[in-house]
Design brief:
Keywords: 2Fe-2S, FAD, Flavoprotein, Iron, Iron-sulfur, Metal-binding, Oxidoreductase. This protein has helices at about 1-10, 15-20, 100-105, 140-150, 175-185, 195-200, 205-210, 225-240, 280-290, and strands spanning about 30-40, 45-50, 65-70, 75-80, 90-95, 115, 130-135, 160-165, 190-195, 220-225, 245-250, 265, 270-275, 305-310, 315, 320-325, 330, 335, 340-345. The chain is of the alpha/beta class.
């Protein structure tokens, strides 16, 4: 009622537009968060903590959220795992790989405002006490760190084995904190694998896993990291008939790099166009053109990026299949144009 009355005096602008001048988190149109700290981690990585505004619901350990930033006047969105423990203000740990992540690492300052989407994802801790194995590599440790920070200090019956792979000790995220947690809590055991000297874990036989965690077959397991690690671990658990005990979190999916000739993409509702080659996704083409593209996982899993195909032909970069049915809902995050394409977005 108050906002409706105030609109008489603020027209043609909405009262929310003026409220944002006082409180940058106040917006009925877009969830936001203000950066409260930027903490350097290992080389090229930082943890960005933020205080979300109204509309955010508390995250569960292991979930991720879409984060939006404006770069050269264009709002760019990416999905990041939340590394803070459940029940606390959220944080993301970002490594400077890719345009948006590099911008976050190099340019974010306390007081900056981030655009947010609510936390989501089902890479979650089990509901009851159970021995756990966490198998991570590189930045794949971020959702698992949220789980460890949530579980280990609060549960005296916690039994967690973390096996983390990094190139060198200097590249290992959260190494000092994990050492402190393991020293303070008997329920956490941490094993680091430094691939520059130790090589990668060999999944062609169970020997490496047996040495690192002899009872791995009886534990609920979580794996997060590069696609090769996820594929190898999934095969190992399948071969040993314990596939149901493995939860996998994928940050990326393998896409074809020589899918076709590409073409012109027309974003009809946005009145914008872009030219993309045959290995550039429609989602990326739209974002580069300044189109607000719906998306979530960016891996062809969550289907949040679906938009109707109005005309033209697209190719699925995972399978190579083509689609050209007018009105068909297509996944822009794993599709590329084959000639001129019109999208209803």
């Amino acid at each position: 009622m108050a906002l409706s009355a105030a609109s008489v005096f603020t027209a043609p602008r909405h009262p929310q537009d003026f409220l944002q001048l006082v409180n940058p988190l106040s917006s009925a149109r877009q969830l936001r968060g203000v950066v409260t700290s930027v903490t350097p981690e290992c080389s090229g990585s930082v943890t960005i903590a933020f205080r979300p505004g109204r509309g955010w619901h508390a995250h569960e350990a292991g979930q991720y959220a879409r984060i939006g930033v404006e770069i050269d006047g264009v709002r760019q969105w990416r999905s990041y795992s939340l590394s803070a423990p459940a029940g606390q203000d959220p944080a993301i740990t970002v490594t400077a790989v890719g345009r948006v992540s590099r911008h976050l690492v190099e340019s974010t300052r306390v007081g900056d405002v981030l655009f947010l989407a609510p936390p989501q994802g089902d890479f979650l801790l089990p509901t009851g006490p159970r021995p756990l194995l966490m198998l991570t590599a590189g930045s794949g440790i971020t959702p698992v760190m949220s789980m460890i920070r949530t579980l280990v200090p609060r549960r005296p019956d916690a039994d967690v084995v973390l096996i983390h792979s990094a190139r060198t000790p200097q590249d290992a995220l959260f190494r000092a904190e994990l050492a402190t947690l393991a020293a303070d809590h008997d329920g956490l055991h941490v094993a680091h694998r430094y691939t520059a000297t130790d090589g990668r874990i060999d999944f062609t036989s169970p020997a490496d896993l047996d040495a690192l965690c002899p009872d791995w077959r009886s534990r609920k397991a979580y794996v997060c990291g590069p696609a090769e690690l996820l594929d190898d671990a999934s095969q190992m658990w399948h071969d040993h008939h314990v596939a149901d005990a493995l939860s996998v979190e994928r940050f990326e999916t393998a896409l074809l790099t020589d899918a076709g000739a590409g073409g012109r993409v027309v974003f009809e509702k946005s009145d914008k166009e872009a030219v993309a080659d045959g290995s550039t996704t429609l989602l990326e083409a739209g974002e580069d053109a300044g189109v607000l593209m719906p998306h979530g996982c960016r891996m062809g899993i969550c289907r949040s990026c679906l938009v109707p195909l109005r005309a033209g032909q697209i190719k699925d970069l995972r399978t190579g299949e083509t689609h050209a049915d007018e009105g068909e809902l297509i996944q822009t995050c794993i599709s590329a144009p084959c000639g001129t394409v019109h999208l209803d977005v």
